[in-house]
Amino acid sequence: MADTVHYQDAPQLLKNFLFYLLTIKGRSRRTVDAYYRDLSLMLRFLVLYKSGRQIDSDELHRMDITGLDEAFFRSITLMDLYEYMNYVTSDRSNQSATRARKISSMRGFFNYLSAKMGILDENPAAGLEAPSIRKSLPKYLTLEQALELLGAVDGDYKERDYCILTLFLNCGMRLSELVGINLNDYKPSDHSLRLLGKGNKERIIYLNEACETAINQYLPIRAKSNIKTAHRQAMFISKNGTRLSARRVEEIVTAYLEKSGLSGLGFSTHKLRHTAATLMYQHGGVDIRVLKEVLGHTNIATTEIYTHVSNAQVEKAMSSSPLAKIKPKNK
Prior knowledge:
This protein is mainly alpha-helical. It is 52% helix and 4% strand. It has helices at 12-23, 29-50, 57-62, 70-74, 78-90, 96-116, 143-151, 158-171, 175-179, 209-223, 246-259, 269-282, 288-295, 300-303, 311-319; strands spanning 186-187, 192-196, 202-206. Strands 1-2-3 form a three-stranded antiparallel β-sheet. Strand 1 and strand 2 form a beta hairpin. Helix 2 (29-50) packs across helix 5, helix 8 (158-171) packs antiparallel against helix 10 (209-223) and helix 8 (158-171) packs across helix 12 (269-282). The longest helix has 22 residues, at 29-50. 28% of the residues are buried.
């Protein structure tokens, strides 16, 4: 299990589960790392809690859990998991979204041990209720702000940076999808681009004129770069000749947000994805089902957050009422 070499401080059953997520379920490394952190913390807590010892934060993170055997996992009850959730709520101040993620991790892990491996008779996490998460409208740039952001691009890497922002704002791709683009993913003959999304799922998006123009202006500049052999297929190249990292892209976006006067307003790289989706829905009249495919969502319920309406649309709707101009009669 070479793919789980950096999970060596985890017990074997947890390593098996992480390997299952990576290879069978096709989860991304980032997702599996999150499962690893959540479940390792849970197991360390349970070792202390079930031994009757006081929960000490320093000891919790130093604890060796590699030797946990099947008997320990069989001893875990729903009440133990309630105690753990109480701990992360009261002592670690985990908010509802974080707690919901931890519960999802536990459900998946214990379902694997029970339904898949037959090690447990039942899933002790099945009865855990996820906290309700307050749904808020996605934050996004207005059309005018998006234009200001694009207009701020300058410098030695302006063609590359402009192309990055243009793809974000027009296609609504994820950060991981953008940095993973290879040259052969772009098919100018049919104006398409292949993306590798969550769970290693491929999808094809079709590029508009702005995106193709930006790509075609960047590629001749890229060709002049001193690209390292292992990175020659990467679309976006750093000044060091390597594939542009996700962290570096975030720094680039942050710098242009600041330059365009949009810093401090809660915008980020991921908010550019929200911007693209919102602009397509509000200004382009894109059907929600089509938008789902563009964004690579598995469930249309995820896409429905973009069906919110702007203040301008609400104002226009109110003004459209046939009674909007009725005034009281003078007596």
